[in-house]
Design goal:
Shape: globular
Helix content: 25-40%
Number of helices: 4
Oligomer: single chain
Strand content: 15-25%
Distance between the termini: 9 Å
Largest sheet: 5 strands, antiparallel
Strand order of the largest sheet: 1-2-3-5-4
């Protein structure tokens, strides 16, 4: 047996714990080991927080964006819409895959190459930039991609461990 679910959420901070609780509840009901559920919930929280912070619609920009550092594209300007993002989770067999997709500007070009490049971490004094690194450490496989003209997608997989007597235990 397998299950999947999808949530369409407003790009608001309150949506992050909602998605996390939804995942934890589904994992507990299915009988997934609590340590695996916790790792996936932290990774999901980081992906959702990134969608909330960076995943907005940036079509309202003006000349202020010309000549800006590409890493500053995440800063929203007045008049932009708040947008939504989508979380989809699949529990099938021995694996869980989670995808978080937003409608923002996508990853800067050098971020999309991250999967094939050596792992790079933010400077120790950086106030942000650790979310994707945390996801990489907690999941077994991570993929960062841009949807042409439609935002970014972070997907990650983790091999599941089951509690004794689990409802969805892999056969």
């Amino acid at each position: 047996m397998s299950i999947w679910w999808s949530l369409h959420l407003r790009r608001e901070a309150a949506s992050v714990p909602l998605a996390r609780r939804f995942l934890l509840g589904a994992m507990e009901t299915a009988g997934v080991d609590p340590d695996i559920s916790f790792d996936l919930s932290v990774a999901l929280s980081e992906a959702c927080a990134n969608a909330v912070e960076h995943g907005g619609d940036h079509r309202g920009r003006d000349e202020r964006s010309v000549g800006r550092d590409p890493w500053d594209v995440w800063d929203e300007f007045p008049g932009t819409t708040s947008g939504e993002y989508r979380v989809t989770a699949y529990l099938e067999g021995e694996k869980c895959r989670i995808e978080v997709a937003d409608s923002g500007p996508g990853f800067p070009a050098r971020r999309t190459l991250r999967a094939s490049a050596p792992q790079q971490y933010p400077p120790l004094g950086a106030e942000d930039g650790r979310g994707l690194c945390i996801i990489e450490q907690l999941a077994d496989h991570v993929h960062f991609a841009n949807r042409p003209g439609r935002g970014a997608v972070v997907s990650f997989d983790k091999i599941l461990k089951w509690r004794k007597g689990a409802l969805l235990m892999a056969s």
